[in-house]
């Protein structure tokens, strides 16, 4: 498996939201949505915040206060799935997003279990018919347009 140094949420075609200890990701291109529950949500948040892949296991060990050597292959496979599903993409360290420390810590649910992606296509037709779009970005663009007039 190719290891990318840094990953971030794909900049085009997905949106995501943190809900309790879960991150819900929606692919606007396919209408498929994904559920990332802890520790999958935590892995996503750490990567999105600029944690290099080679430091991921050690950061998880600090947050879970346990050794995770036995889970390193599962974690690597999970990260590969994030890339394969076009949820995350390679980036340079200065292109990463960020989660605040409180959010990252809130995503820790003990004990550690192998991270998994739950994939759903049951609402695919609805998402493709009436796509979800980032309202905050659209509102900011509308406000900028009005200011420039």
User: Distance between the terminal alpha carbons, to the nearest Å?
Assistant: 51 Å
Major beta-sheet overview:
4 strands, antiparallel
Q: What's the multimeric state?
A: single chain
Overall 3D form: globular
**Overall residue-averaged pLDDT value:** 84
How would you sum up this structure, described in words?
With 149 residues, the chain is an alpha+beta fold. It has one domain. Helix content is 38%, strand content 19%. It is built from six helices and six strands; from the N terminus they run ββββαααβαβαα. It has helices at residues 40-48, 56-64, 72-84, 101-106, 124-129, 135-148; strands at residues 6-9, 14-19, 22-27, 33-37, 88-91, 118-120. The strands form two sheets. It has a four-stranded antiparallel sheet. Mean pLDDT is 84; it is low at 135-144.
Please give the structural blueprint.
Blueprint: E1 6-9, E2 14-19, E3 22-27, E4 33-37, H1 40-48, H2 56-64, H3 72-84, E5 88-91, H4 101-106, E6 118-120, H5 124-129, H6 135-148
Antiparallel strand pairs: 1-5, 2-3, 3-4, 4-6
Primary descriptors:
149 residues; alpha+beta; 6 strands
